[in-house]
Amino acid sequence: MKILGIESSCDDTSISIIDSNKNIIANEIISQNQIHKDYKGVVPELAARNHVLYIDIILKRILKKQQLEITDIDLIAATAGPGLIGGLLVGLTFAKTLSQVNRIPFIGVNHLEGHALTARLTNEVEYPFLLLLVSGGHSNFYYISDVNDYKFLGGTLDDALGEAFDKVANILGLDFPGGPQLELLAIEGDYTKVSLPKPLINIKSLDMSFSGLKTAVLNYSSQIDKNNISGCDIAASFQKSVADILCKKISLAIHASHKEYSSFKNVVVSGGVAANKYLRKKIIKTVELNGKSIFFPPPRLCTDNGAMIAWAGYELYKAGIKSNLNIKAKPRWPLESIGERV
Ligand code: KG4
Ligand code: ZN
C-alpha cells in the first residue's frame, strides 16, 4: 500500500508518501520559521495562509519527483487535531477533497498519535510501550497499549518543554524556534557556573513544571557577561536541569507503569525536543539502567512531518479503525480521549 500523509497543525506544511513496508518514499516539509521569527512565535493566521499557498505545490512536486499519480495512492491520512484551527482546516479539507474526488480511503489522525507511533515506522518497537512526548505544545507520559489505545500517565502542569526551550532561547537572544540553537549554544557552556532550579523533581508523581525554570533563566540573564557567566553557561545549566528532571520522571514512570499496567520492554521518546542530542544521551543511560530498551525517531522525524501522520493512518487502517469523512478539525483533542473519529 502507498499512504499519503498530510500535516498542517502548526507552522510546518508537510506531505509524505510511505509504503506499508515502512519505506519513506517522500517526506517534504516547508517550514515557516522565517515568516514567524520576527513575532517570536507562530502567528496562527499567517500560518494558515501559508499552508494554503504551499500545500498543493508540495503534493504536485512529490508526485512528479516520484513519477506517481494521485491514483497510485491507497490511503490518505491527515492531521485532524490538536493544533491551530486554520492550519488544520487547510490540511483536512485538502485531504478530504483528494479522497472524495479520487475515491481513495481517508482517515483523520491525531497529531500526538503521529508523534507516538513514529518510532514504529523507523524501528521494530513492539506494543505496549511507555511514551514520553516532548514537543512545542505537549510534554506528557503515556502508556501505549496498542494503536488507538493510549493512557495518560502525567505531564507538565504549565509550559510544554519545547515552549520553555523557545522562551529561554529568546531570553538568550536566539531566533525562533530556539530549541535547536540553544542546544548548540549549550555545548560551549559550563553548567556548574549557573545554579537553576529543578521544579517538582522530587515529587513522587509524573507532574512536571517548566515555567519557573524559564523565569529563573530570565532572572539570571541580567548576570550575562558579569561574574564570568555567559549565555552558553546559562544554556548548559538549563539543559542540565531539564535532563535531570526528565531522567528522574522517566525512572518514576517506568516503575509506576510497571505497577499499574502489564509489563513492557520499550520506552519511546518523541516530539521536537527528542531531537536534542544532549537529552538523548542522558535519557539512553537512564532507561538502560532501568533495564528497558529505548527508541527515538530520527531527528528529522521528531519534529512535525507528514510521514508520522501517514504511518499512524496506516496502523489505524490495518486495525480496521475508520474515521467519518465529516471528522471536524479539533484544536483540542487529548490523545487519551480520542473516542470516535467524528
Ligand atoms: O514536535 P514539534 O515539531 O511541534 C509540535 O508538535 O509542537 O516540536 C517543536 C518544538 C519547538 O519548541 C522546538 O524548539 C523544539 O521542538 N525542538 C528542540 C530541538 N529541536 C526542536 N528543542 C530542543 N532541542 C532541539 N534540538
Ligand atoms: Zn508536533
Model description:
This protein has 342 residues and is an alpha/beta fold. The chain folds into two domains: 2-117 and 304-337, ATPase, nucleotide binding domain (Nucleotidyltransferase, domain 5, 2-Layer Sandwich); 126-300, 2-Layer Sandwich (Nucleotidyltransferase, domain 5). 43% of the residues lie in helices and 18% in strands. It has helices spanning 33-36, 44-65, 85-102, 111-122, 161-171, 179-187, 211-220, 231-260, 277-289, 299-302, 306-318, and strands at 2-7, 12-19, 24-31, 75-81, 106-110, 129-134, 139-146, 149-155, 266-270, 293-295. It has a five-stranded mixed sheet with strand order 3-2-1-4-5, with helices on both faces. Strands 8-7-6-9-10 form a five-stranded mixed sheet, sandwiched between helices. A hairpin with a 4-residue loop joins β2 and β3. α4 crosses α11 (306-318), α5 (161-171) runs parallel beside α7 and α8 packs parallel to α9. It is globular, with a radius of gyration of 20 Å. The two termini are 25 Å apart. 51% of the residues are buried. The mean pLDDT is 96. Bound molecules: 5'-O-[(R)-(carboxyoxy)(hydroxy)phosphoryl]adenosine and zinc ion (ZN). 5'-O-[(R)-(carboxyoxy)(hydroxy)phosphoryl]adenosine binds next to α5 and α6.
- Global structural class: alpha/beta
Mean of residue pLDDT values: 96
Q: What characteristic shape results from the CA principal axes?
A: globular
Q: What letter string, H or E per element, gives the SSE order?
A: EEEHHEHEHEEEHHHHEHEHH
Low-confidence stretches: none
Task: Provide the gyration radius in Å.
Answer: 20 Å
The hetero compounds bound to this protein are: 5'-O-[(R)-(carboxyoxy)(hydroxy)phosphoryl]adenosine, zinc ion
As laid out across the biggest beta sheet, the strand order is 3-2-1-4-5
Characterize the main sheet.
5 strands, mixed
For the record, the count of structural domains works out to 2
Question: Do you know the CATH architecture of the largest domain?
Answer: 2-Layer Sandwich
Count of helical stretches: 11
CATH class of the largest domain: Alpha Beta
By CATH's scheme, which homologous superfamily of the largest domain applies? Answer: ATPase, nucleotide binding domain
What is the percent of helical residues?
40-55%
Give the termini distance in whole angstroms.
25 Å
Percent of residues in beta strands? 15-25%
> Total number of β-strand segments?
10
The CATH topology of the largest domain corresponds to Nucleotidyltransferase, domain 5
